[in-house]
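User: structure tokens for this one?
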Amino acid sequence: MKLRRACPARRGRIEIIPMIDVMFFLLATFMLTSLAMQRLDAVRVSLPQGMAERVDRDEPLTLSVTRTNQIFIDRQSVRLDQVTQAVARHLPRDGNILIAADDGAAHGVVVQAMLAARRAGAAHFLVAVHRE
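Assistant:
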């Protein structure tokens, strides 16, 4: 003899709508966090192509040279004769300077800016390139 239950057994359901809401919130949070972590001290220049290792240093000082041969130190415009004083004021402890020179910038201006930074105590130069 087979006995039946008074209430039929109901199968459990997994609701996925709250899970989708949580995943969207996490995605938006991580996207905004990653955008806030970018360092934007360099002036926008067209970098030359090249293969280079990715550098994970602690925020080096950025020396930028534009196509019109304007020199910027962390987005502050300086003349060539002011580079030594500006670098000496902002030089990090490790002495690293990131050179972000435009592809069309005059080679002589970039070299003169590097020599002025060397006189201020720069130990190493890191050259920014656009990865292929």
